[in-house]
Amino acid sequence: MLLTVTPNPSLDRTYEIPAIERGGVLRATAERMDPGGKGVNVSRAVAAAGHRTVAVLPLGGAPGALVADLLAGQGIEVARVPVAGATRSNIALAEPDGTLTKINAPGPELTAAESESLLSTIRSHAGSAAWIACCGSLPRGLGADWYAELVARVHRAGTRIALDTSGPSLLAALRERPDVVKPNAEELGQAVGRPLATVGDAVKAAEELRGQGAGAVLASLGADGQLLVSAAGTYFGFARVAAVRSNVGAGDASLAGFLAAGGDGAGALAAAVAHGAAAVQLPGSVMPSPADLEPSAVTVTTDVPLDRPLTEPVP
């Protein structure tokens, strides 16, 4: 069983439009409504692969109830932590060329009691989980060290933890030695405080995060592929993609594939790349099923192209 934690979940509405016209009336050609949040997406991808997953979520108001209903309809167990504030609603506008414009609401402010209830709920489910994936930004009311406290409690329960967050909360959590951290290129550059221009720059940055406490670093480099830097070595993976339709949740699908494949080594990285490549070819935040995966399109190697410039360098 894979347990996911999403401290700031959402109800996501995605509209496909011909183009954005400021001040005009935009007519959508298609629309979707999905339960949202990075950990939620990981659970959705795990469930789509036929594995059991439990999503721990602070939920409030009508949007929160709808998120729980949508997840239940996808076969995902929800460990609901009631909160007074309403769960946030986000909007994404997807254009035919793959450009995505997102409006993310701030979400509710959690009280100290709600924060402790969330931590206690996670702890009560930790013992039966093979992995715990803790993902996304923290809601108002939770300090930057909240993830660090969570990692410490999970490790005391003897469970492995993967952390997908950024900024001060990522840096604070490193001291508690999370088993895996999953930054994208921008988050990786922010964590080390310098620009990343090449794949080699990203490798060095990942090595620094390991030096600060991360057991392994699974780094998404967008169109350039993915890196896995761990005690076992450094691997580089990439896949052929025919066309990008939406990159919403692609990193979350990658993390789901990685953990479902064991969370370590070349095989897990190959699964991560396959899931991410499949996700970007699907609409909105649809998570890939096994039928969507193309393992033959994936290449994983220890011959890392250190001098290759990043398509989107981190300033």
TrEMBL record:
Pfam families cross-referenced by the UniProt entry: PfkB
Gene3D superfamilies for this protein: 3.40.1190.20
Protein name: 1-phosphofructokinase
Keyword line: ATP-binding, Kinase, Nucleotide-binding, Transferase
Protein family membership: Belongs to the carbohydrate kinase PfkB family.
PANTHER family, sorted: 1-PHOSPHOFRUCTOKINASE (PTHR46566:SF5), 1-PHOSPHOFRUCTOKINASE-RELATED (PTHR46566)
NCBIfam families xrefs: 1-PFK, pfkB
CDD domains: FruK_PfkB_like
Organism: Streptomyces hebeiensis
Superkingdom, taxonomy of origin: Bacteria
Ranges for domain Carbohydrate kinase PfkB: 23-290
InterPro entries noted in UniProt: 1-PFruKinase (IPR022463), PfkB_dom (IPR011611), Ribokinase-like (IPR029056), Tagatose/fructose_Pkinase (IPR017583)
Record gene name: pfkB
